[in-house]
Amino acid sequence: METITIGVAGMRCQACVLSVSTVLLALPGVERVDVSLDAGQASITYDPSLASVARFRDAIEEAGFDAS
Hints:
Blueprint: E1 2-9, H1 14-25, E2 30-36, E3 41-46, H2 53-62, E4 66-67
Antiparallel strand pairs: 1-3, 1-4, 2-3
């Protein structure tokens, strides 16, 4: 397992945090997600043989937020 932190811009409330968490947890290979509204970031623990950072960014952006 690996852990990566991705910046997430555009979150304004806990519903946004839940949206980001939900889309990331739905991806294959994702074991754990911690999204911080205050820090504007998502920490993702995942299996690199099943998931990729590019896919995380795509999922965040498809949910309506900016990933960096």
